[in-house]
């Protein structure tokens, strides 16, 4: 049977079903979690899938034998607790140090503003993936994160269930978190900046 490619633009993870928009156009095709092959990853909006169309008893066309075009499953999403702990640790350390040395309000404002911008960008990207529109470039998401928006990115990844399974994105993303944290230490008025600068200059 001829396989069809399409984009998963609607998915109810709690109920285990959604709809695929065929790449060649036409009506959306119903897909149930049971239709995915055993080696397939957990469905996520924006996934590019291939499937075999099958007419159900009620006359509705549904997708069967569903898997990624290359048959490669993605890794499992990283636990939400990991991201929350990273944010909590960063805030706790910054707050503790601020009781000893004042941190400029500009630093706080930058993190808040960029986090909100990053969250909105993730939401727009997921909405675009669902509608089959142009996506927000991953480099843009990473840039917003490295400029201080990574806490908002972590929240968006977990709350929106977006960008939590793709290793080729998550690797660079966590690198941006490390880079931003180091930059915060170097640019802040805290003695910690001098300490880190001294260690890097060796």
Outline:
The protein is an alpha+beta fold.
Broad shape: elongated
Describe the biggest sheet?
5 strands, antiparallel
Overall pLDDT, averaged? 81
> Number of DSSP helices?
5
Strand order of the largest sheet: 3-2-1-4-5
Topology:
Blueprint: E1 4-12, E2 17-22, E3 29-32, E4 48-55, E5 61-67, H1 80-98, H2 105-131, H3 138-159, H4 167-187, H5 191-200
Antiparallel strand pairs: 1-2, 1-4, 2-3, 4-5
Helix pairs in contact: 1-3, 2-3, 3-4, 4-5
Commentary on this structure:
α1 crosses α3, α2 packs across α3 (138-159) and α4 (167-187) crosses α5. Mean pLDDT is 81; it is low at 69-74. Helix content is 49%, strand content 17%. It has 5 helices and 5 strands, in the order βββββααααα. With 202 residues, the protein is α+β, with helices and mostly antiparallel strands. It has a 5-stranded antiparallel β-sheet with strand order 3-2-1-4-5.
Features:
five-stranded antiparallel sheet; 5 helices; elongated; 5 strands; alpha+beta; 202 residues
């Amino acid at each position: 049977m001829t396989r069809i490619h399409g984009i998963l633009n609607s998915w109810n993870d709690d109920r285990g079903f959604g709809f695929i928009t065929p790449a060649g156009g036409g009506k959306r095709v119903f897909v149930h979690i049971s239709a995915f092959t055993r080696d397939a990853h957990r469905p996520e909006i924006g996934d590019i899938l291939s499937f075999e169309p099958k007419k159900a008893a009620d006359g509705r066309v549904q997708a069967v034998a569903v898997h990624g075009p290359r048959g490669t499953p993605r890794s499992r999403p990283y636990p939400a607790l990991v991201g929350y702990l990273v944010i909590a640790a960063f805030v706790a350390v910054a707050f503790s140090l601020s009781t000893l040395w004042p941190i400029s309000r500009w630093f706080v404002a930058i993190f808040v503003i960029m986090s909100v911008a990053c969250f909105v960008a993730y939401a727009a990207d997921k909405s675009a993936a669902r509608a089959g529109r142009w996506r927000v470039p991953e480099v843009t998401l990473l840039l917003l994160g490295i400029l201080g928006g990574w806490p908002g990115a972590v929240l968006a990844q977990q709350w929106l269930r977006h960008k939590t399974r793709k290793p080729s994105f998550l690797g660079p993303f966590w690198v941006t978190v490390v880079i931003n944290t180091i930059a915060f230490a170097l640019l802040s008025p805290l003695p910690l900046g001098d300490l880190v600068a001294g260690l890097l200059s060796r």
